[in-house]
Amino acid sequence: MTVFYFFVKLRRMNREFGNKMTRCPRLGHEITFAYCIQESQDLPCSRIIQCWSPAFDVESVLQKELTEDAWRKFVNIQPRDKVENIIELIEAVKTKK
After folding, report:
1. Where do the domains of the chain lie?
2. CB 42 within 8 A of CB 70
3. What percent of the chain has pLDDT over 90?
């Protein structure tokens, strides 16, 4: 039920903000807000507040639209650094061979 609820809220956020664009520091090019709110599948990207705050009050939007559980998970996410990501990608490629 909560996953369904999240996707209903996600659709509402997409209608209002989904087409807005910003430069993503992780990917290195412009992306839409719609991508950022579903980047982590069931949670928004951990950097969404940093990236979108200059454009609008994204924190208030997320607090309003996410469930209490989802908001708690989101604020407790520890973003991985680039080195960790690279090491994980290398290990994943090695295991596929």
Report:
1. 2-96
2. yes
3. 8
